[in-house]
Write a structure and sequence with these properties.
The complex is a heterodimer. Chain A is of the alpha/beta class. Chain A has 20 helices and 19 strands. The longest helix of chain B has 28 residues. A five-stranded mixed β-sheet of chain B has the order 2-1-11-5-6. Chain B has a four-stranded antiparallel β-sheet with strand order 3-4-8-9. Chain B has a two-stranded antiparallel sheet with strand order 7-10. Chain B is of the alpha+beta class. In chain B, strand 8 and strand 9 form a beta hairpin. Chain B has a single domain, classed as Alpha-Beta Complex (Sulfite Oxidase, Chain A, domain 2), CATH 3.90.420.10. The chains are: A alpha/beta, B alpha+beta. Chains A and B meet through helix 1, helix 2, helix 3, helix 4 and helix 6 of A and helix 1 and helix 5 of B.
Chain lengths: 727, 178
Amino acid sequence: MNKLNQKSVLWFLAAFIVAIVLGTINTAFEFRHQSLKQDQSFQDNYSFFTSKYERDINIAIIAFNDFILAPDNQEKQAKYLEKIDIFWSRINAIDKGSQGKKFIEIKDSVKIIERDRKILAKIDRWNEKLKTSGPPDTALTGQIRAALDSLASDGRVLIRNAQEFQQQQGINREQQLYGLYLRTLMMGLGALLAGGITIFIFYSQNKSLQRLGSDIETALEDRSQQLTRTRAIVDALPDILFILDEDGYFIEEITNNPDSLVAEREQYKNSTLYDILPAEAADIAFDGIQRALQTNQLCFAEINLFGPRQTGVFELRIAPFPLRHKGKQQVLIIRRDVTEQKNLETQLRRSQQMEAVGQLTGGMAHDFNNLLTIVLGNAERLEKKMPKTNPHTKNIASIIDAGKRAASLTHRLLAFSKQQPLIPQPTNIAELIKGLEDLLKRTLGENIRMTLKTVPGLWPAKIDSSQFENALINLAANARDAMPGGGVLKIETANLTVSDNLPSPQGYVPPGDYVLVSVCDSGNGMPEDVLEKVFEPFFTTKDVGKGSGLGLSMVYGFVNQSQGHILIESDIGKGTTIRIFLPRSDEQAPGEHNDKNELPLLKGGTERILVVEDEDRVRDIIVTILRDHGYKVTEAANGKEAIAVLNKSQKIDLLFSDIVLPGHMNGFQIAEQARIIQPDIKVLFTSGYAETDVIDQSLDDIGENLVRKPFRQSIVLKKIRRILDQD
Amino acid sequence: MHKTRSIINPYLITLLTGVFILLSLSQTVGAENILADNTGAVLKISGKISHTNKKDGLYLGRAQLKALPQTTLSVTTPWTDGTVRFTGPKLIDVLNLAGADGKTLTAIAHNDYQTKIPVQDAVDYPVIIAMDKNGKPMNTRELGPLWIIYPWGDIQSLRNDKYYARSIWQLTTIIVHE
């Protein structure tokens, strides 16, 4: 509330109250004055002088009576005449002057004194006679007495009339005064009432003004709080909001985001989209604005920016804005950075593609494996049957060699497509790497020289060899990408005993015996922030579309799964070294390279084997090989047939079954049933590939009881013999 | 409210009038005798005075009063029409003539009317004992022969009932009091 205003109201009220008081006092004085006038005029009131009139005539009558009793007494006569003179003086003066004016107001007063003057004149004449004659004549004195009596009677009438008149005057005066009193009272009350109403009006006005004031204050406070809140909300938005007019001119950037389109807001002044954004992006945005204004609906646009301030993919939500600016329509644009989202989408799509590719390659590899099983099986059989002197032996050997290499390729395909179950086995790492050398060199390309250093007596490590191969190839691929201008890739192996916890940026390596494999490139190296993230899935420094971002994370996963550890060190400009610590295995690795030499020593048997295989030719070659080596073989194409065979109560020593089979039963389920029917039965599985969906058993459980297609005679026979010989 | 002031009981008035008459009768007798005995004398002054020409006071005739310096007042009165010229000696001169030594006067009229006049009035104002009205002597029928007149024409504050009551006509006697 304005203090000045309040003060002036108070002054006004004070003046008003003073005016009321003065007015009331004035009226009271007027009243008092009128009352005093009544008092002052009392002396010459009507009764006063009419009573004198009557008195004077009565005195004259008394004097007359005195005279009549002693008619000869001159003194009494003179006194009588003097009293008549005094009455004359009374009657002469009574209607004169201001007092006379009052007198003639009395009822009949003029008439009476006219008459009385005449009577008095007669008395004067009779008095003259009295003076002259001796003793008074009774008739004359009787006349005089009657005349005097009528004068006295007139005097009494005058007194009565005066009294009545005065009474009336008094009543009138009283009424007048009462009216004045009432007026005074009414005026006082009216003034008080008016004052009260005025005060009330001022008070309530003042109150409502105050209330209005405080309401406005509260509203303002609320409003400003609301504004502050709204501002905070807007500022907290990760998006940028700005307003443009229909011609693409910037009106305002609403958000106060450091990630603004421009470095300085001044740049928006008189700027269009084309001044701020690259032409291509501006075109897209401008199109969006036109669409939004035409359809009066929210429109979306997506722009790619590669500028110094803005890089990435941005979604523009363009909404028609209900307010006009200088007569032009406006749009509200919400700019959202969707780069990450887009990357994730791309990665998801890529992994879905890979999944599909994996399915495809897995299926193909399976078919290839079956075919290769037939090729290799038959070729090996031929080689065996054919005398060594036969000139075609060389051709057959070539077929077998090609078959083996084809088998190796399908294995790799399966490994890439992640269809390979992890089968950890004691492995000679050095041998494995040597076997992989060709592939690695092909991966690296001609610009990169690869050196391989192994130590003699390398400990075996228990790993899944194909996964390890996969990991190495991934590391090689990464190294290649890190050395676009060529370089050296060093792969070294060593035995390492860790006695204390070996700290590393990625954790620590606990004490133990390890087979160390280090892969060292002479590439660009990686900064620390990249190093921290290299094992995260989908993290890639490669250009979009060139890498999956899964490589190192797969390596990491594989090493962890194998109870190993991985360390990574990188120096910018010098290169990156990745060290893989693989746990040492107590078992010796079976040397696959001895297979060829063991061929003649292959042991057969006479036990009965049930072969379950849906592919006829594959089944044929398996059955043929087994029969060649003395086994009694029963065949089945699917689970149903296999169960039927088992139920014939013929004793089956070994169930040799493919895992993936048509019909309701897979290899595992057949094995389960078989163990129920013939508890002593032994089981060996084979598979061209292994879907993780199908394999619900622990891989460790069947690791020893699985032979992968395409298999070599020697491996199958050895596995069968080993299983049959187990107790 | 002043309610009952103006109401005067007529019986009370009659009674009072009676009493008044009786009282005035006894007084009138004395006054009449004096004037009757001394023809020519129109005014008797008694009470606290130092000069007397009879044993009960100073008796003055018209000629004696006329011998004093005369003053004329043109006034209006409640009892006369229009402006009237009254002529006569100043009251103060008459009192001095009598060697009056008092503060209050009781003035008595032919018609037994009495009033008290402070001597100070005579000092403060040119109050006269009028003998002539408009240049002619006044007889009894004209409220004469003597009439005390205040200078109402000049002094506004005298025009009220207090002074009108002191303006005694048909004056015969003045008694000087302490």
